[in-house]
Amino acid sequence: MIRQERKLMFMSEFDEAKYIEKTAIELVETKSVNGTSGEVDEAEKIVEILRRIPYFQKHRDAVWTKELPNDPLGRKNVFAFLKKKGTQKTVLYHSHFDTVGTKDFGPLESDATHPDVLAERFKSFEEDEDVRNDAESGDWVFGRGALDMKSGDAVNIANIRYFAEHQDELEGNLLFMGNCVEENDHLGIIAALDELERLKDEEGLEYTVAINTDFISPKYPGDGQKYIYYGAAGKILTCVYVRGIETHVGNTYDGLNSTVIASRLNCLLDNNPDLVEKFPGEEILPSTCLMIRDQKDFYNVQTPKTTHMYFNTFTYQKPACELLDSFEKEIKAECLKMTGLAKRRRSAYLSGLGFPKDKDDRAIDVYTFAEYAEMMKKRMDFEAECKRFAEQRSECDKRTAGFELLDHLEELAGDGRAKIVLFIAPPFCPHNAISEDSKAYRALKATFFEPEYVLKKYFPYLSDSSYIAVDETTAELERMKDDFPLEDFLYPLPYETMRKLSIPAVDLGVFGKGAHTFKERVYKPYSYGILPEKIRTYTKLMWK
């Protein structure tokens, strides 16, 4: 009874929803585009907000930052810790505070981080009735990062504040973590793993769950359901190096145009539902092409020798190495069709001119990088050459380094044959999910039992949750690394730390629309009013 009275008194004196809204707007107004010094500004802003909380005013050392190693911008992660004596059980609240850029706002870009101004502008937005209605309702906060994911940051701050103010409800330890550099390479969470491990070892913590507040959205117009996720999809950047047979346009039937090969492979792989894992009821997304580019630097009448392409490929349960093997099989079959067609067309051309038939031995060899490496080891000191290449390109683009390495190796010891080499480039996001007989899952069912909540296994977007646990075996990861050129140089991941931590990951996200667009907005009644209490209920169950 006393606890309930104190809680009611707290709520009457302190409007939590208004606090979260104010905090979210303050964070949105601090511009923190990925790859800029704004990420540092936002980290400092979060520290400032946390240290306004009376508990952290008295315990200033319980809020701290950790800089990313060797980061030219000095970007850093933010931590805050509420310790409960006599227990090891610890719940982790985590979120990221970097955002994508603001150029998509166009003429509204100067107001991209001013929610109140944007709301007024959108009240007369004739191009989209839904946006206009939301602005007129007053129930939505607009602005870059309002949804992805500064409202999630604000909810986590509010909840650690709540437990700091209600120590009688603090039945376990609570760790807040705000991460930089999520929107491209996830370097913030990767660097933070060492700190999570240090706290685990030094404080004797048992991480029972990691709660990410990354956003959720309606799946179709009018969808009011709230989606709760108990796993994180993974990702590989599937790269396809295409080398054709270069020829003069006057001898076009003698060559194999790398752009034609790449185009056929793009049609084969992009959005192909036959090449995805199957889980009824889950949002399982196919591979999609993010880049396709021939490597001609200037105009001439030679066909393009090489074309580079890469695909976003989500992973769910299958290991990355197995997915790459399946792509290789499909590509080999497609290449046989391509060369067969090329030979038939050339034969018809020669026959039409009355020329004699000749031998046409054109073929396209298909390798994974591991297979290609074995072949090249017979021609050179392969490992030494790769190391030398890496040392000479310390500032290279992580996405293109593998292509550049293959170009280099082909120049050194290539056989001149048409070929395709499949490999992986950064970022690699491991997949993970909690089992349905686990405590974390049962607690979700107990907390989000109302009909408007739908539990799903895989968060359908890329997420920092990928890095706090790994489901793939050591053997599967080693096989994957064999197809990841320069992995130790470009994107070394602390797999053993991830496996040691193995924190069950859930996403209890704020609700909104238009993430990564200029219409980005978060719905206040749920995100600031209902969700925080739900998270606290779940937190308490995970302390038991």
UniProtKB/TrEMBL annotation:
Pfam families on file: Peptidase_M28
SUPFAM superfamilies tied to this protein: Zn-dependent exopeptidases (SSF53187)
Entry-linked InterPro entries: Peptidase_M20A, Peptidase_M28, Uncharacterised_RocB
Boundaries of every Peptidase M28 domain copy: 77-220
Protein name as annotated: Putative peptide deacylase
Organism listed in the record: Ligilactobacillus ruminis
